[in-house]
Amino acid sequence: IGVLLVGSEMCIRDSRQTVSSNASTAGSDEDVVYLDARRRKVIYTLPPVSKSLGRKVYVKRIDQDANNICRVVTNQDDKIDGTDGVVLTAGQAVILIASKDQWHVFAKLH
Predict the structure, then answer these.
(1) pTM of this structure
(2) How many Cβ atoms sit within 10 Å of the Cβ of residue 76?
(3) In what order do the strands lie in the sheet with 85-87?
(4) Helical ranges in the chain per DSSP H
């Protein structure tokens, strides 16, 4: 299982932060991603669905700030249940699983 913390103090200070899972958690069939949008907008890009069959990604927004956007988006032309991405509100979590054609929301929790 790969674990990634995005948006914390260890990250570059910017008005937004975009992170791709390819660099940090490649080779794992399950990833846990914590997104922190207290200081900036955070966008997490899923790995290509063509290389992720059966892969599970658990994403949790750990902040309670309603002012900054926190999104999970797809790589290039990939889709999440037919859309380009999922917005997470404060404290929300989503479980995504890759099929051969697209990512699927298995559960969205608050």
Answers:
(1) 0.80
(2) 8
(3) 16-20, 41-45, 70-73, 85-87
(4) 21-25
